[in-house]
Amino acid sequence: MAPAATFAKDHHLRLLQGAQELFPALVRAMDAALSDIQLETYIFDFTGAAVAVAEALERAARRGVRTHVVVDGLGTGRLPQEWARRFKEAGVQWRVYAPPGWFGLLSPRHWRRLHRKLCVVDGWLLFCGGINILDDFHDPNHGPLAAPRLDFAVEVAGSLVAQASEAMEQLWWRIEAVRDLRRRDLPEAVRALRAASATRHAARLQRDAPGVRAALVLRDNLRFRGHIEKAYLRAIAAARQEIIIANAYFIPGHKLRRALVLAARRGVRVRLLLQGRYEYFMQYHAAKPVYGVLFEAGVEMHEYAPSFLHAKVAVIDAQGEKPWATVGSSNLEPLSLLLAREANVVVEDGAFACALRARLVHAMEHAGQRVDPARYLQRPLRERVLDWLAYGLMRLALWVTGKRY
């Protein structure tokens, strides 16, 4: 089995909060691109600030940069007619991962989604995190937002970029192979599958160059099924002082719950920043039944209220001897950890961990509401029924897929 993460100490990283910091960095990188741009996202929206990213892709393609965009077939709707024309004229190549088809999500095989948010520019600069190509103040389902959603990404140069580029290239050619097979073009399908096994890029920075120790951790349904969850479990087991996790859809399985409980019982301060606003029935209610066992162990919970929480980050022992942090796309819930394609960058560096910790602590203290265990236990009967109904439906869905969590 491939290792869960291959660390190297040659990385240079920059933490980015929200689309307000990510999009300008993306646009600058795309405008400086010389050879190619690879972009994967769950949602690509064409409202507000997201348009700047679309325009940067268009400019790059017009000057001859190979521009590949892959979006999820469920997260992203049909490409707007105007942008379909503009992308086609410019040469932006747009592909859709696993379109739901006529029967939507009725078939469990369509529950496997492309949820990772990755962009590689010229094979040496990577952007990875939880931020979709979506304006911070706009939600496709809820409309304008009074405050920006809370989310993070990281900009990375170093040897892990080659791994991200290779994974994205392989997925691109697998999608091409499926398209060719559907068109009954067998020779082209074979060519696409062969291309999927080729590695195009080598990292521009030398592996032994001074920098930050970091690794890319992927999750798919082939070689990397449990790697993100295992990375969390190892880090939590090694924690000695503090664990801070910010996660939009927090429904941890037995192993993660047990790891957090054991950490809290051995004296580690465990704080969770969770979704405080109602967004989706299943994710909002199914999380509540797991609160009780965590409260009993002394875990602190804060709910982010000003806007939607969309972060998938964690910091462990930021000020200790072995600091650990992760920024990525993976929620701690069954869809992300068992079915979706995800990507997280894991960093073992005190300065980076402290920078992320400072932003999370600020969010908890100034924009979060601490959950009172007593009030949780006294919540109305109707809420408890909805919570257990959602949790039961989630467990049923897992049983249908044959997964254990």
- CA gyration radius, whole angstroms: 21 Å
The number of E-state strands comes to 17
Strand order of the largest sheet: 4-3-2-5-6-9-1-10-16-15-14-11-12-13-17
Count of alpha/pi helices: 13
What's the helical proportion of residues? 25-40%
Low-pLDDT runs of 5+ residues are: 192-207
Distance between the termini: 21 Å
Shape field = globular
- Please outline the major beta sheet: 15 strands, mixed
Strand content: 15-25%
- Let me know the average pLDDT: 89
Secondary-structure-derived class: alpha+beta
Order of helices and strands: EHEHEHEEEEEEHHEHEHEHHEEEHEHEHH
Which key features would you list for this structure?
single chain, 405 residues, alpha+beta, 15-stranded mixed sheet, two-stranded antiparallel ribbon, 17 strands, 23% strand, globular
Could you explain the architecture of this structure?
The chain has 405 residues and is an alpha+beta fold. The chain is globular. The strands form two sheets. The protein has a 15-stranded mixed β-sheet with strand order 4-3-2-5-6-9-1-10-16-15-14-11-12-13-17, with helices on both faces. Strands 7-8 form a two-stranded antiparallel sheet.
